[in-house]
Amino acid sequence: MTATTPTSTDPGSTPPVAAAPPGVLRTAWRMWRVRIGLLLLLLLAAVALGGPFVAPYGEAEFVGTPNTRDVEGTRFGTDYFGQDVLSRFLFGGRSILVLATLSTAMALVLGVTIGLVAAYNRGRLDDLLMRTMDVSLAFPQLLLALVALTTIGPKPWLIVLIVGFTTTPRIARITRGAAVPVVERDFVGAAEALGESRPRILWSELLPNVSGPLLVEANLRLTYSIGIIASLGFLGFSTRVNAADWGLMVNENRAALSVQPWGTVLPAIAIALLTIGTGLIADGLSRASAGIDRAKGDQ
Amino acid sequence: MGILKLVIRRLAFGVVTLFVVSLAVFILSQALPSDPARAVLGREATEENVAAFREKFGLDQSAVRQYTDWLGGLVSGDPGLSYSNGVPIMDFLGDRLKNSLFLMFAGSLISIPLSLAIGAYAALRRDKLFDNANSVSSLILAAMPEFVVGALLTVLLATNVWQIFPATVRVRPGEQPWSDIDGLVLPLLTLTLAVTPYVSRVVRASMIEVLESDYVEMARLKGLSERTVLWRHALPNAIGPTFQVIALNIAYMAGGVIVVEALFNYPGIGLALRDAVREVNLPVVQFLAMFISLIYVVSNLLADVGTILVTPRLRTRLS
Amino acid sequence: MSAELGTLGDLGDRDDRDGGVTLSIRSLRIDVVDTGHDIVDEVDLEIAAGEVLGLVGESGSGKTTVGLAVLGHARRGVRIASGTIEIGGRSVLDRSPRELRRLRGGQVSYVPQDPSTSLNPALRIRTQILEVLEHHGFGTTAADREARVLQVMEEVALPNTPDFLRRYPHQLSGGQQQRIGLAMAFACRPSVIVLDEPTTGLDVSTQAHVLTTVRDLCRAHGVAALYVTHDLAVVANLADRVAVMYAGRIVEQGTTRTIFESPQHPYTRHLTAAAPDISGTEAVVGLAGRAPAPGKRPVGCSFAPRCELATDECRESFPPVTSPAHAHQVRCFHAGGLAHLQRPAPVTLLRQGRDEVPALSIRHVDAAYTGHRVVHDVSFDVARGECVALVGESGSGKTTLSRSVGGLHREWTGEILLNGEAMARSARNRPTAQRLSIQYVFQNPYSSLHPRRTVGDSVARPLRVAGVSAAEATKAVHEMLERVSLTAAYAGRYPDQLSGGERQRVAIARALVSRPSVLVCDEVTSALDVLVQAAVVELLVGLQHDLGLSMLFVTHNLPLVRSLAQQVVVLADGRVVESGPTERVLGEPEQDYTRRLLADTPSISAASAG
Question: pLDDT tens, C148-193?
């Protein structure tokens, strides 16, 4: 229909200056939802990572009567334990963001590898890998995390491992799904005919051509990882005892919601904005890559 | 007869899945380098106390023996004794199982038709006002964890802004969960808001795929009425994916219920699970993990079989 | 206006035709809703009852868009902007949705391109035929309609047993599915039918049967048919008249005989010269460039940038319709100005040095595909500097065999020798020198180039694998790009900035950059339009001659073979049916199978002569 590719009617003439095909990122950047999402993500990341440096009090410092809105020297009053809400809030995002990022990164590395290997090798190895992934999907992520925490307790490394491992099959499936049609394409055959090595084919033939769906999935998984880790905190399994944690704060302060809402509202809104931010980016990226694919499919 | 064979095959896969899950649960909770007895009784417990505890709960047996005993118990409906009080688990979890199933059932009853209706309508009115508004709001809701949605709803509807509904559920032991209808509003609303956006997006996508298909265009070019196009040509092809969506919905419920129960103090398995994890009450944790997985596996199994039954291409391949 | 000027589609005094004009399209314009760019414009067509009009054009010319407009339908994002369409004297475009529905499937029906996706997978075929009859109130009783279903099944030569009618589309073959498409279209005895490339993807024998059915039904029931296609040979055999579309406009229209024997528009001349003909004896002539897309069309004649005769007049204004002869219209300032294009004689190399070691030797090869044997004991040679065409219908095993030769398919036994040396099964196990010495060009240029790698990097890969330095590789790449009629400037571009023909040239450059002795071409022209196909064939012939290449040219396109192959190997069900010099195999086939294949392949010259 409406081809977006430049048309040269005379192949003898000099083609226009070379430009990379408009990538997913560039298309996504033009969308307002991606810009808002990025803004939210940067803002909340700044709060979570930089907050501890600007917090007026320590994260477990007693400053006044518990559950009081107007306490001198505090902006948002005190929480259930007489600690400064603002300081707790500024301290409470770091571990969520760091752990979620680490576990998503770990899942990406594992999931992409498994997905690409399964897609490229097809046959029995593919069946085995994907059946294993299917089985591990038969399990809510939060539930598996709770089971693992039972005897060992909420250690940061354990949370990263569990969230990472349970996210892996989801990423592997997406990667495989995106890579299978790429494997069928003839440029992969051309690389094989040249005798390129398997790792090179996975890395430089397949990976660049699944980056669109992968970017989407990475953002989506980051969103859910934040949700799970925050939910663990909410259920009382934050990584350090009495440490500030947005999820835990919601739980601690909700009993006094009617007299001192800040202790619940601040962290709840922070988590909401953070996940909405990453969610918006994921959605924008998926629209962008769908649009690009559609333009390609026009050929 | 092919269908029966297929159901048996899917059933076998479900059983294998549950078996693998049971292994994972057992290994994760018990065989990791930790001592459950010590974890329960604390560091100060005497050697005798620890030994007595081990004997009572069979922890002195080999890991293989413990596993087979536990698995055998599960299969025969006896998941063992609770660490915290030594009472058979089923004795005190029975009501909670019922309460949770009720919450999930009521939540599904609301969210499944709602997701289907919203998704299908958005697909039909693609790129119009409803679709765009729904796209943005569902995106925002789908991104937030359940407890955040619930907490914000509590602020909005139960405490600070308006005080329409109670912030917690009051169901005393022995009472039926539906005895506190007002209290159920917020938990159900939270579950619905957590599940519906995601699921309705899936419905919309699969509905659009069908509506954009060549055969729907062909049906229009045959001069069929829009009603026939929709009901005879589009919907039958959208039913298969719908079963998957319903399974997805139920699966989501099973996970979401843990947090929602904790948030609204609803006496169900979610709250029980949280407490059991806190108390290192392994048999309870293991049993509940298996129970939730069972819901997952069964809903997926039913969805697979349902999809095959309504898709001629899959159904006829069997015979 | 001079007396010669008229509108395209003006049939003059055609009242002697039975039934008169059934379908009439005037000044039709269809454009993109968002941008207002025209997809088609100034389209005028008329079709009489019982007449078949072939609407010919390359992909993107707007021919399908015109076909759908006849049913008052425009796809998403596209709208019918102006003009009139009348069927039996009544307008199509000002109808209410309800009236339009009564028209579609009743008075005017549509046969889609791809029946496998156009039939509803969830409904039995009986339901799908019956519902058209029900919605259009065919007959008076349900029994009438049931009877009509059985009758129309017979008309399209399908079994009408209850058992067959209970089947779902996926339980039918491609040819059967297309016949169901015809049955649905003819069920209500329409007065107009639009057929949108209904034989694409079908084997020639199935195609021949479907075409016969279409012709017989249109003649027998006095249906006016608009047959949309890119295949000139099909049109030559089926259509009474032909309209040629280029970049959204009809550039020439006339009787089939006129169009094929004395085309007046330069584009039509090129089109007929590029079409391979099974009974002709000449090679094809290609044309560089491509048709401009909507929104990129020039002010004047769209063909001017590619036209030898173009003058300033052509570039400034769009030519009006002239009528050089009775019932023949052309849109060109220089109509008839281009002499008949000289079709070269095919290259006939004598098998030189028969005693020499052949470049490629296939000996007793059996190949399997996921366990099923699809190639049985195939043996033949490709001599040095020779092009051998491996011809077969889909499922003949030709692609499996060629992929085995290229080292892309591992399930084979027997011997494949390259310059006398046995090759390992998989490319990965072959020594680098051997891998570079036999190169493979793939069918689809849209999938054979890495989309995120520049043309230069893609073409340089074989050299880089061989350990050639980056600087030297770049030099060789530029040289090779020139050689395939591109320029060195293409090295910096990405595949999605190129047309299909340009991509295939890049793929050929990549295959030739390592100076191989054998080139395997797997259906390399089947994804290309006919002019581009001819240009690629010309390029391959030139390269074969200049570089002394040996080629294995795999194709299902029998007419094309004459333009470039010296030897033909006919494959059916995985076995060699017949082989020998091209002239002999195409001219005096020895085997029944080959004879049947040749008879089923539509011929341009035979049709326009008869």
Answer: 999 999 999 999 999 999 999 999 998 899 999 999 999 999 999 9
In b/e form, how buried is each residue of C142-157, taking b as 16+ CB within 10 angstroms? eeebeebbeebbebbb
**What pLDDT shows up at residue C319?**
92
Instruction: Report the C-alpha gap between C131 and B219 in whole angstroms.
Output: 10
Q: CA-to-CA distance for B126 and A286, rounded, in angstroms?
A: 17
Instruction: Name the strand (E) or helix (H) holding B198.
Output: helix B181-211
Q: What is the ipTM of this complex?
A: 0.86
Q: Which of residues 408-427 of C touch A (CB under 8 A)?
A: 408, 427
pLDDT tens-digit profile of A183-221? Answer: 989 999 999 999 899 999 999 999 988 888 888 889 889
Task: Give the number of B-C residue pairs with CB atoms closer than 8 Å.
Answer: 80
pLDDT at position A102 over 80: yes
Contact B313 C109 (CB under 8 A): no
Contact A2 C450 (CB under 8 A): no
Determine, for residues B313 and C112 on separate chains, whether the beta-carbon distance falls below 8 Å.
no
Give the span between the Cα atoms of A214 and A176, in whole angstroms: 10
Integer Cα distance of B45 and B37 in angstroms: 9
Asked if A230 lies within 8 A of B147 by C-beta distance, the reply is yes
Asked if C477 contacts C460 with a C-beta cutoff of 8 angstroms, the reply is: yes
Which residues make Cβ contacts (< 8 Å) with residue C532, sequence separation at least 6? C286, C290, C499, C500, C501, C504, C525
Which pLDDT tens digit goes with each residue over C500-532? 899 999 999 999 999 999 999 999 998 888 999
Q: What is the pLDDT of residue C17?
A: 40
Query: What structural domains does chain C harbor?
Result: 3-107+190-330 (3.40.50.300), 122-188 (no CATH), 360-431+438-446+517-609 (3.40.50.300)
Q: Cα separation of C483 and C22, whole Å?
A: 52
- List chains touching A (3+ CB pairs under 8 A): B, C
Nearest Cβ partner of B143 from A146, A147, A278?
A278
Instruction: Collapse the DSSP code of C64 into the 3-class scheme (helix H, G, I; strand E, B; otherwise coil) and give the result.
Output: helix
What are C85's two structure tokens?
A: 């369409």
Candidate CATH numbers 2.60.40.1640, 2.40.50.140, 3.40.50.12780, 1.10.3720.10; the one for domain A37-290: 1.10.3720.10
Q: Rounded to the nearest 5°, which phi and psi values hold at C361?
A: -135, 120
DSSP string, A229-263: HHHHHHTT--SSTT---HHHHHHHHGGGTTT-THH
Residues C149 and C130: beta-carbon distance below 8 Å: yes
- Neighbours of C, requiring at least 3 CB pairs below 8 Å, are A, B
C425's tokens: 């099964």
- Does residue C62 sit in helix, strand or coil? coil
Q: Which residue of B154, B255, B280 is in closest CB contact with A254?
A: B154
Residue pair B253/B198 in contact (Cβ under 8 Å)? The answer is no
**C464 touching A, CB under 8 A?**
no
Q: Residue C355's pLDDT band (boundaries 50, 70, 90)?
A: low
Q: Which of C499, C458, C493, C449 is nearest to A209 (CA)?
A: C449
**Domains plus CATH for chain B?**
93-281 (1.10.3720.10)
Write down the domain spans for chain A: 37-290
Chain A residue numbers touching B126 (CB-CB < 8 A): none
Could you tell me if C513 lies within 8 Å of chain A, comparing CB atoms?
Answer: no
Residues of C with CB under 8 A from a CB of B: 68, 71, 73, 75-76, 100-106, 109-110, 112, 114, 117-123, 131-132, 135-136, 168, 170-171, 184
Closest CA–CA distance from residue B232 to any residue of chain C (Å): 8
Where would I find the beta strands (DSSP E) of C52-129?
A: 52-56, 78-87, 90-91, 108-111
- Angle CA B191–B192–B194, to nearest 5: 65
